[in-house]
Amino acid sequence: MIHHAHDYREEARLDALYQLKLLDTSPSESFDRITRMASQIFGLPVAAVSLTDWDRQWFKSRVGVDHCSIPRDKAPCAQVAESTEPLVIEDMAANPCYADSVLGRAGTRFYAGAPLITSDGYGLGALCVLGSEPRQISSTELSALVDLAAMVMVQIELQHAFGRVDPVSGLATRNQFRDDLIDMAREHPGEERLAVVVDLARDDQISRIARVMGGARVDEMIREATRSLRAALGSGRAAYHVGSAQFAFLSPAGVEQVAYMEELRSAFAAIRSSSSVRFVTNVAIGVRPFILGRMSADDVLRGAVSAAQDARSVDGSVATYSSANDTAHRRQYGLLRDFGRALEAGDQLRLAFQPRIDLATGRCVGAEALLRWRHPRLGEVSPAEFIPIIEQTSLARATTQWVLDTAMDQLAKWRMGGALTVSVNISATNLAETDLIDRIRSGLLRRGLQTGQLEIELTESAIMAQPEQALAMLHDMADAGICLAIDDFGTGHSSLAYLQRLPARVVKIDQLFIRNLTQAQGSDFVLVETMIGLAHKLGYRVVAEGIETQAAADMLVQLGCEEAQGFWFGRPMEAAAFVAWLGARRPEAA
User: Fold this and answer.
1) Residues 124, 117 contacting (CB under 8 angstroms)
2) Where residue 291 sits, what CATH number does that domain have?
3) Are residues 351 and 302 in the same domain?
4) pTM score, whole prediction
5) Is residue 331 assigned to a domain?
């Protein structure tokens, strides 16, 4: 058998095994009792509870075996763990796969093993019996072996009962919720229920409480919420602690959804009003309608959690599961997961370059580098969809570095003597990277580029997210000779006093203000005129984005705008197309 060391499923299986902390532990009578029973039922001298580690079969319990482990290679218990199916070898000497295995060479002729399967479906190993003579097995014997293996798993779970009860709240955990739902579906198939998740606070609120008041205060908040929840549900209803600050319960059978949600609003309004942390948290409640037996417990719970997240943005803080919202959230998560792979793939990401035109001469003086992603399954994914997701994660650094490196590589290939400038967008997250400037300078130096050939764009909103940190970073960048541009000018909330302090050379007026620039003296004309005048008074060069007509370009010349970019001049183009576009322009304008 081939052991796939890097297989994802195998890594998850091993993780499930290691979390149980069973390997290399002392023998226990609770396991030995079952192993002895297996040996007696089959009338065989050898029986064992075998756990499949990455390179060995380790025996938690054994009868008639002196050693406590054997190599995993060609061990039949490994096949049982990997397949999660029973395995019977009536004559090992006649089996080409196992005849020369460790067991086969030791004289084992008969083997029967039943899998030890976790509730998540991972095979930990096997309960096996072995004999020194060939043997057949009846269906009754095999059923008994499967039942005994299930008893072993129950014992394993009992030994880890702390995983079924949360030590802080004293409530049953997510694992118990899963098992209880399976039991309910068996007893009441087809019954309609509502799953409710109560989310006490956002993660950042929990972190803030822990940071200011300590973890003990968070624990007390959880216990307080538990008492309130138990009082609201009554003694006959089960509640579950399913996340760090998330609780779940099921509605009674036969409730009407709209009326029940009103009850939830009233009940939790009272709980909120008496909470000791009501001013620094906000409770959100999600409701997931479902039919017992038609959906897995994990999907039920995930849907209710998704609804609770939606509830944070609606009045009353109670929301019903929305398949559309859930699909959108899952797509966002999928894009985030896949983008990390795209950074490493080498063939999914690329840059497009949109020309920047000097309005006075018509010459192309630069280009904005725009990230593009061709997903292997979804096709082209809009930057407006994936960039806001990435900017909130640790991928922001790697993404910006990929764009910087690719843009500088392209500049080095073009070798246009510094006449062409390429602009690269960075995010607010990048401003926290203390080595960002050094990375940019060393990248330019390695490629023999001048600092003036690269322009860094940062939106006004990103600057105002961390204004003092941004100001310090941007001054350091300007001191290093790197040109700075304020992107989407006019859409943020910066004050004039702050704008005066920014060491930027360029402002880019957002296309929102330019797109409807159709007639002089109109409201858009007056607004753009004012913005250009303000930018000039602050010492900035002005670039207008979103130019789609000659009339708009003419008006911007009239208003004194220096540069422009937009579809009227050229759409974003990949490097080869951009070079061809440059070459096709009139010599005097190229």
Assistant:
1) yes
2) 3.30.70.270
3) no
4) 0.61
5) no
